[in-house]
Amino acid sequence: MYIIFVPLCIVSTLPQVYIYSSGSRLAQRLIFGKTNYGDLRKYLSGFFDTTVGNKKETQSYIEITESLGVDKPSDILFLTDVFQEAVAAKAAGLEVMISIRPGNAPLPDDHSFKTITAFTEI
């Protein structure tokens, strides 16, 4: 599963979109370069993989925030379908939404994350 990582950009009317995946950056570029909808890389600002750290560890999101030069982590919106990743990103100060998809593990009843089923809900 490819996780969409969306820093909200104040200087631009469009957000910058980054991918953070357990797949390598090269694999991500290949996958997004050849889709049923053509080459989607032109819509992406960059790629992160687990060389920045495990996706379930808070430090990984701190590293990403710092590498992007973002002063306020809450200016970054992180979308994921994995609860543990959401917890780690939130602990790093990011805004987080969980994407509900078929096959997702159930969420704890007492979670506090906003959930979405489509990007139009962002």
TrEMBL record:
Domain of life from the UniProt record: Eukaryota
Protein's UniProt name: Enolase-phosphatase E1
Record InterPro entries: HAD-like_sf (IPR036412), HAD_sf (IPR023214)
GO terms of biological process kind: L-methionine salvage from methylthioadenosine
Organism encoding this protein: Salix dunnii
GO molecular function annotation: acireductone synthase activity
